[in-house]
Write a structure and sequence with these properties.
Rossmann fold, 234 residues, globular, alpha/beta, 7-stranded parallel β-sheet, 6 helices
Length: 234
Amino acid sequence: MQDLNNKVAYVTGGTKGIGFGIAKALISAGLKVAISGRKLEDVQQARKDLGSENVLAVASDVSDFEDEARAVALIVKEFGQLDILIANAGVGKFAPVDQLSLEDWNAMISTNLTGVFHTLKAGVEQLKLNKGYFITISSLAGTNFFAGGSGYNASKFGVVGFTQAAMLDLREYGIKSTTIMPGSVTSHFNGHTPNEADSWKIQPSDIGEMIVNLLKMNPNVLPSKIEVRPAQTK
């Protein structure tokens, strides 16, 4: 997939933070991009902020498979194909395990883990047609556990395992699969507002650049799991 012009990518959770940074990098590389989020007004605003005619705004809750199936159908109708799935949507709720609510547990598992399955399930036949690429945005929390992170750790450990197993299932179709596991990223995650104090962190544009480089990589090479950290601490 070294020639990216007019390839079509779908980025879940694309309205801000990492997802927005990925979408921006893909557009700059010549791709057509669909972005999704739960609220249509947020997705439409993000489309406007991206400032490109090659962006499709789709309202979809990844925890609902029917939403994701509709999203993929809209993308194919609009752009004629789908080459790249980037499962980025995620939420984080942190509390000691004895205090973690059922609602917060279910929100993380249904969005961070089941949502990734829904996105792939909805789009995998398109990837087979086009020998596409499936990318998940996990976290270093997918390999490093921490107090107060039981639900988040469980969801992100799951994403890493899911993506690696999917890689083995799908490469016989010429589909590549990679999970990216960032450390601290400047984003709106967990209600945070990015500010100057975040300058030491990985930037969303850095993740976007990494994905463009992955897509341009020699077809014989597959970095199936990537850990990425800030080069320095604050």
